[in-house]
Amino acid sequence: MSCLFGPVPSRRLGLSLGVDLVPYKVCSYNCIYCEVGETTNLTLERKEYVSFEEVKRELGGFLSSGGGADYITFSGFGEPTLNSKLGEVARWIRAETEIPIALLTNASLFWREDVREEASLAHVVLPSLDAVSPPVFREINRPHPDLEVKRIVEGLILFSKGFEGEIWLEILMVKGVNDQEEEVERLAEVVKEIAPHKIQLNTVVRPPAVANTSPLTYHDMEEIAKRFPGKVEIVGSPTDHSALSINDLDNSVLETVLRRPCTVKDLIKVTGASELEVKTTLKSLILQNRVEGIKIGEELFYKGKM
Predict the structure, then answer these.
(1) HEC profile for the chain?
(2) Is 61 a residue whose pLDDT tops 70?
(3) Which of 164, 187, 275, 276 is the most buried (most CB within 10 A)?
(4) Domain range 242-306, its CATH number among 3.40.250.10, 1.25.40.10, 1.10.10.10, 3.40.50.620
């Protein structure tokens, strides 16, 4: 499987070229809301999960062919800071292209100085912080047993004080888990210390790893947003970009839904194919038992099977 995916329309980053630095599903968390699914390798071990040479080969090919994006984004199947070559990859990208780097991270390793130094090579860092009290942290993020939320928060604050780029802090709210008044107050106090450029308030919008993990209403999100200092955005739907031309529709659709559940509308934007072509491809992949449909609310999402 390619370590690149997209460019895809992102709710937060416009047209994003994803770079997977870890395979499915290597992570330090096993979040109940994760759209990628249950973590299969819960770890804190840093190593070269995806080789630097592979990333250079694939990304170099993309750039030499004239490919473009709003951001090159370290994201995907798991936690990118677990890759020990993160810094080398970021330095190489900076030398090869003017496209800015975005890092999507759970910030669980920011207590490590080497990780903070490597993360600082991104232009924009989008860390997540869903809870600050240990019981809620364990319930929502289901972290590696050696992780302590206090240490993570301290690392994130240290990073924020030395980072020259922008920090967009994501807080994902789950109904009945971290939306309680006391937890929101604790989060707001920590946010003051982090002082991100903006807060991106999110909730469950795609099929989660754990069934019955419920979203907040937009009204509830608006009320919670008032409790945080600074600029707060309630994350919406993907921005509208021109469709991309993809030759191999089956592979394009499968690569996309393996990484995140998508609606037909999402896949039309990603592939540039017609609604009929996307639906025909999905039907074929479902018959091959490579894709399944999952309904959340009134929306039907399609998810790849590993």
Answers:
(1) CCCEEEEEEECCCEEEEEEECCCCCEECCCCCCCCCCCCCEECCCCECCCCHHHHHHHHHHHHHCCCCCCEEEEECCCCHHHECCHHHHHHHHHHHCCCCEEEEECCCCCCCHHHHHHHCCCCEEEEECCCCCHHHHHHHHCCCCCCCHHHHHHHHHHHHHHCCCEEEEEEEECCCCCCCHHHHHHHHHHHHHHCCCEEEEEECCCCCCCCCCCCCCHHHHHHHHCCCCCCEEECCCCCCCCCCCCCCHHHHHHHHHHHCCECHHHHHHHHCCCHHHHHHHHHHHHHCCCEEEEEECCEEEEEECC
(2) yes
(3) 187
(4) 1.10.10.10
